[in-house]
C-alpha cells in the first residue's frame, strides 16, 4: 500500500499554464520552430498497392529552379537498422502498400517541393495485392501475443456446453470500422543536422514522447543518444498516432542529413496521414453470451478477427476487456489476424478496450432485453468479486457505483424497456447504457530532477503535454510532494535534455511521471530538508520495486445516451450523453473533465461518423481527408456531461491516479448503439450506425 | 512565378515576394513567420487556419496570397495587445475550451466573427426565424462553430465560452 500524497494543489481546477499561448496561437508546434532559411521536404508516394519500383526519373524534378535535392529508394543513405520495416524509409524498391514513400524532394519553398515531387516519375512492376479483411478468409493466423504483450487466446471452462444449456443466449457478430487518429496537427518535424564533429541531430517533432522517439531514431540511424535531441513543448494531439514514431520522423532526419547545417521542415499532408501515421484495424467480433433467468452469466466469449499490415505486425488486443469485465465461470477470448498489403496499423486511443467494449456491451443489452432485465441491473448482477482473469483482488472497482450514480443523474429509473415505441414529434426516442473500462498502467522508465533555483523549485522531466494538461498538472503533483505552493514550482518538459520520461500513452503519463516527481521530491527533502540552498538538486526515477503487483488495477465507468432518430429520414441525433467514471484521484478537475468529455465525444464520433473506406481494388482509403472522413463537429454534440466519483485507491501510485485519457472512448459507441436500438427497435451491430441501416426497418 | 504583395497582419505592414501559388496561409506561416493560424488540412475542411480577413472569418488555406494584395488580416495573436486577452480568449481559458491548442486560434477567430455575425442579425441553419435577431443559445453557437473541427473535442466547452464572451452566461 502506498502512502497517498495529501492533496492541496492536487484537486484544484487550475487554469492551463500554457493556456494564454494557446488561445493566442503563440505556442510553438514542431513545424513552426523558427529556423534560418529552412528547406522544405515533400514526399513521393507509391501509386500501386504492391510491387517493385523499377525506375525513378528525377531529371525533371531536379531541373526545377529551387530544388535542392531529390532522394529515392535507389539513392537514399543506408540506415543502420531496418529491423522495424515500417521505419526502413527508402531502403527497398519493394512496395508493400499504396502510399509507401519511395522518394523525397528538398526545395527552397514548399510550393517548389510539392511541384518537384509531382514531377518525379516512378515506374513500377505492379503485382496483385490483397487488402480485404473477411472473417471467412482461410489464411487467418494466430499472433504470438496481442498488443502490447497479452496472451492471444484465453479459455476457461466450456463455453459451448454453457451455451447449449443456458436459459438465454446471445450469439452475434459485431464489427467496428477502420479509424484514423487524425490529430488536428499533422505529423511534422523540423530537423537540423549539424555535421560538426561526429554530427548532432536536432528534431523538433510532434511526438507523444521525446525520449522514446529519440531511442527509435538513434537505433534506425545508428546514432548515439547523446548526438540526438528531440524537442516537443507543444503537441497538437496524438491519440496514439504520435506515440510510436512513424516513418515521417525518419524521413525528416534523413532529409536533414542531405543538407547539413540547414533546417528541413517536413509535415505530412492530411491525406498522407491516412497511409503513413497509423490507424485502428477494423474488427469483426463474434460474441457469445449465456445466462440464467436472473441474468447471471454462465458464459461469455469473444472471437476477434482483425488485420495487420504485412510490413509490421500489430495485433490489437480487442478481446482483452472481456477477460476481466464480468463474472462468468466459462469464458473464451481469441484473436486471429489477416496479414494484408496495407499501411501499418498501430495505437489509437484505447487500443483493445475501445473496439473490445463495443460487441460485448451491445450483446449484454440484447441479453437484458431477451431476459426482461434492466441493462443497468444486468451489469450489476455480474459484478465479479475479484479479477476473473488473474484471481487478484481489485485495487478498487466502482463500476456498480458508476452505473447507479449515472442512472440517477441521467434519469434512467422507470425507463420503458420496449424498443421503438416513443415518439416526440417526428423523432423516435430511446436510451442506452454501456460500461467503460481502462487498465491502470505505469511505465518502468521515468526520472525527474528537482532543483532549487532562485527561491523556486524547478522540476525537469521529458514528459509530454499533448493537450492532456501536463504543463499544469505535474506542478500540482510536485507542489504537494514538496509541500510548497504550486506557484513555487516550475515544470520543464518536452525535451530530451531533461531526464528520461516514458511515452504519453496507455493513460500512463501522469501515473508514471508523477511517481518520478514524488520520488524525486521525497529524496530532495530527505537530502536537503525544507531549507535547501540555491542549486541543490536531486534526480530520482520511479521506484519499480514499489509497484504493487498484488491487485488488479483498472478505472471503470458507465455511459448513458439518449438517441433520437428521425422517423422519416433515419437521421440520428444524440441530445444527451452522460458518463460517470471511477478513475482514482483527479489531479485537476478542469483539465480532467476535458479529457473525459473529449474521449466520450470521440466515442460518439466512432458510433455515428467515422469510417475509413478502403477500396480493395486499389488498396486505398478513398475518403482520405477531413471532408469525407467525418468526425463529430460541434453541432453533433448535445448535452454531454462527465462526472466522477471520489475514488481513493492506495495501491496504484503515490498520487492515487489511474489515468483518464482513454477510458471515455470505451463503451461510448455501445451506449449509442443501444440507445438507437431502444429508439427504433433496429439492432445495428456494425459501426458506424448510419441512416441506411435504419431506414428499411423503422417503425 | 513570383509576385510582390503587401499584407497587413496583426497591425504590422509587410511587403513580401510570393510564388503565385502560395496560399495566404503559407505566406503567413512560411514567409512571415506568423504561425498563429494553424494548418490542419490545407483544404478548407478543418478551420484551424481561420483568421479575420478584412473583418470577416476566412480560411487562408483556400486563398492565394497574390489575390489578396493589400489585405488586412487579424490572427488570434492580433486580437489583443501582448499581455492582454480578447474576451473570447479569456472565455476559452475560463471554460477550458481546448486541449492540444492546435485548432484553438482558428476557433477563437471564428468565435469573434460569430459574435459579430449574430450582432448583425445574420441567421444560421439553426435559426428558427430568419428575420428575428438570433439568440446565443446552444444550437445557434454550435451550428455556427461547426466549421472548426476539434479532435480533442472541446465542443461542450467551446459553446459556453462563446456564450460567455457574448455576454450570455
TrEMBL record, chain A:
One of its GO terms (molecular function) is oxidoreductase activity. The keyword Oxidoreductase applies. Transmembrane segments: none annotated. The keyword Transit peptide does not apply. Residues 24-128 form the Aldehyde oxidase/xanthine dehydrogenase a/b hammerhead domain. Keywords: Molybdenum, Oxidoreductase. PANTHER family: ALDEHYDE OXIDASE 1-RELATED, XANTHINE DEHYDROGENASE. This is Xanthine dehydrogenase family protein molybdopterin-binding subunit. It comes from Goekera deserti.
UniProtKB/TrEMBL annotation, chain B:
It holds the Pfam family Fer2. It comes from Goekera deserti. InterPro entries: 2Fe-2S-bd (IPR002888), 2Fe-2S-bd_dom_sf (IPR036884), 2Fe-2S_ferredoxin-like_sf (IPR036010), 2Fe-2S_ferredoxin-type (IPR001041), 2Fe2S_fd_BS (IPR006058), Aldehyde_Oxdr_Iron-Sulfur (IPR052914), Beta-grasp_dom_sf (IPR012675). GO terms for molecular function: 2 iron, 2 sulfur cluster binding; metal ion binding; oxidoreductase activity, acting on the aldehyde or oxo group of donors. Residues 3-79 form the 2Fe-2S ferredoxin-type domain. CDD domains: fer2. Pathway: Alkaloid degradation; nicotine degradation. This is 2Fe-2S iron-sulfur cluster binding domain-containing protein. Gene3D superfamilies: 3.10.20.30, [2Fe-2S]-binding domain. Keywords: 2Fe-2S, Iron, Iron-sulfur, Metal-binding, Oxidoreductase. Coiled coil: none annotated. The keyword Oxidoreductase applies. The keyword Nucleotide-binding does not apply.
Amino acid at each position: 500500500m502506498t502512502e497517498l500524497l495529501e492533496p492541496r494543489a492536487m484537486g484544484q481546477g487550475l487554469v492551463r499554464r500554457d493556456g494564454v499561448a494557446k488561445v493566442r496561437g503563440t505556442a510553438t508546434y514542431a513545424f513552426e520552430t523558427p529556423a534560418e532559411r529552412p528547406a522544405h521536404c515533400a514526399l513521393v508516394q507509391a501509386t500501386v498497392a504492391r510491387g517493385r519500383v523499377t525506375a525513378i526519373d528525377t531529371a525533371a524534378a531536379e531541373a526545377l529552379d529551387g530544388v535542392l535535392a531529390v532522394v529515392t529508394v535507389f539513392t537514399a543513405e543506408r540506415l543502420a537498422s531496418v529491423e522495424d520495416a515500417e521505419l526502413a524509409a527508402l531502403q527497398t524498391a519493394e512496395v508493400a502498400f499504396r502510399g509507401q514513400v519511395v522518394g523525397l524532394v528538398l526545395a527552397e519553398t514548399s510550393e517548389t517541393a510539392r511541384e518537384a515531387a509531382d514531377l518525379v516519375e516512378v515506374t513500377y512492376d505492379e503485382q496483385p495485392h490483397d487488402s480485404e479483411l473477411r472473417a471467412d478468409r482461410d489464411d487467418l493466423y494466430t499472433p504470438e501475443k496481442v498488443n502490447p504483450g497479452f496472451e492471444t487466446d484465453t479459455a476457461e471452462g466450456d463455453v459451448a456446453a454453457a451455451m447449449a444449456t443456458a436459459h438465454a443466449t446471445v450469439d452475434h457478430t459485431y464489427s467496428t470500422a477502420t479509424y484514423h487518429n487524425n490529430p488536428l496537427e499533422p505529423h511534422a518535424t523540423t530537423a537540423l543536422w549539424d555535421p560538426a564533429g561526429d554530427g548532432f541531430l536536432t528534431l523538433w517533432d510532434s511526438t507523444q514522447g521525446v525520449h522514446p522517439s529519440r531511442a527509435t531514431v538513434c537505433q534506425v540511424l545508428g546514432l548515439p543518444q547523446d548526438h540526438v535531441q528531440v524537442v516537443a513543448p507543444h503537441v497538437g494531439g496524438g491519440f496514439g498516432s504520435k506515440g510510436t514514431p512513424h516513418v515521417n520522423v525518419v524521413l525528416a532526419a534523413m532529409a536533414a542529413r542531405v543538407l547539413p547545417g540547414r533546417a528541413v521542415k517536413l509535415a505530412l499532408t492530411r491525406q498522407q496521414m491516412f497511409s503513413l501515421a497509423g490507424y485502428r484495424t477494423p474488427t469483426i467480433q463474434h460474441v457469445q453470451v449465456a445466462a440464467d433467468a436472473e441474468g447471471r452469466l454462465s458464459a461469455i466469449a469473444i472471437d476477434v478477427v482483425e488485420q495487420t499490415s504485412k510490413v509490421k505486425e500489430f495485433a490489437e488486443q480487442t478481446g482483452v476487456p472481456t477477460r476481466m469485465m464480468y463474472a462468468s465461470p466459462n469464458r473464451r477470448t481469441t484473436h486471429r489476424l489477416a496479414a494484408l498489403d496495407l499501411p501499418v496499423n498501430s495505437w489509437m486511443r484505447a487500443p483493445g478496450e475501445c473496439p473490445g467494449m463495443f460487441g460485448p456491451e451491445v450483446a449484454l443489452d440484447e441479453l437484458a432485453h431477451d431476459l426482461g432485465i434492466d441493462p443497468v441491473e444486468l451489469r450489476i448482477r455480474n459484478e465479479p468479486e475479484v479479477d476473473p482473469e488473474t484471481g487478484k483482488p481489485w485495487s478498487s472497482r466502482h463500476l456498480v457505483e458508476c452505473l447507479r450514480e449515472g442512472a440517477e443523474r441521467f434519469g434512467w429509473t422507470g425507463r420503458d424497456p420496449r424498443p421503438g415505441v416513443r415518439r416526440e414529434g417526428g423523432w423516435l426516442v430511446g436510451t442506452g447504457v454501456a460500461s467503460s473500462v481502462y487498465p491502470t498502467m505505469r511505465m518502468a522508465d521515468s526520472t525527474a530532477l528537482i532543483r532549487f533555483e532562485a527561491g523556486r523549485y524547478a522540476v525537469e522531466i521529458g514528459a509530454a503535454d499533448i493537450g492532456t494538461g501536463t504543463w499544469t498538472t505535474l506542478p500540482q503533483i510536485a507542489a504537494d510532494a514538496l509541500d510548497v505552493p504550486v506557484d513555487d514550482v516550475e515544470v520543464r518538459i518536452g525535451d530530451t535534455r531533461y531526464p528520461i520520461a516514458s511515452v504519453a500513452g496507455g493513460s500512463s503519463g501522469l501515473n508514471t511521471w508523477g511517481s518520478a516527481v514524488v520520488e524525486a521530491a521525497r529524496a530532495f527533502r530527505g537530502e536537503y530538508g525544507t531549507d535547501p540552498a540555491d542549486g541543490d538538486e536531486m534526480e530520482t526515477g520511479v521506484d519499480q520495486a514499489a509497484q504493487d503487483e498484488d491487485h488488479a488495477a483498472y478505472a471503470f465507468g458507465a455511459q448513458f445516451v439518449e438517441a433520437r432518430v428521425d422517423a422519416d429520414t433515419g437521421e440520428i441525433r444524440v441530445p444527451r450523453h452522460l458518463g460517470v467514471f471511477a478513475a482514482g484521484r483527479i489531479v485537476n478537475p478542469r483539465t480532467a473533465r476535458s479529457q473525459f468529455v473529449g474521449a466520450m465525444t470521440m466515442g460518439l464520433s466512432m458510433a455515428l461518423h467515422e469510417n475509413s473506406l478502403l477500396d480493395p481494388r486499389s488498396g486505398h482509403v478513398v475518403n482520405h481527408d477531413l471532408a469525407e472522413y467525418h468526425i463529430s463537429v460541434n453541432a453533433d454534440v448535445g448535452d454531454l456531461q462527465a462526472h466522477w466519483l471520489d475514488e481513493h485507491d492506495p495501491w496504484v501510485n503515490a498520487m492515487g491516479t489511474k489515468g483518464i485519457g482513454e477510458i471515455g472512448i470505451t463503451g461510448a459507441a455501445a451506449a449509442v448503439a443501444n440507445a438507437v436500438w431502444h429508439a427504433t427497435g433496429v439492432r445495428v451491430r456494425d459501426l458506424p450506425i448510419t441512416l441506411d441501416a435504419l431506414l428499411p426497418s423503422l417503425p | 512565378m513570383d509576385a510582390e504583395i503587401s499584407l497587413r497582419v496583426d497591425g504590422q505592414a509587410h511587403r513580401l515576394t510570393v510564388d503565385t501559388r502560395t496560399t495566404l496561409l503559407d505566406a503567413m506561416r512560411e514567409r512571415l513567420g506568423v504561425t498563429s493560424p494553424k494548418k490542419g488540412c490545407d483544404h478548407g475542411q478543418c478551420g484551424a487556419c481561420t483568421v479575420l480577413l478584412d473583418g470577416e472569418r476566412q480560411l487562408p488555406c483556400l486563398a492565394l496570397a497574390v489575390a489578396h494584395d493589400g489585405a488586412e488580416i487579424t490572427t488570434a495573436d492580433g486580437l489583443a495587445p501582448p499581455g492582454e486577452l480578447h474576451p473570447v480568449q479569456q472565455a476559452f481559458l475560463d471554460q477550458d475550451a481546448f486541449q492540444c491548442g492546435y485548432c484553438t486560434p482558428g476557433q477563437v477567430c471564428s468565435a469573434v466573427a460569430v459574435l459579430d455575425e449574430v450582432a448583425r442579425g445574420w441567421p444560421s441553419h439553426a435559426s428558427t426565424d430568419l428575420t428575428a435577431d438570433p439568440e446565443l443559445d446552444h444550437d445557434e453557437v454550435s451550428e455556427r462553430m461547426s466549421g472548426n473541427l476539434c479532435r480533442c473535442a472541446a465542443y461542450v466547452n467551446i459553446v459556453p465560452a462563446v456564450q460567455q464572451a457574448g455576454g450570455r452566461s
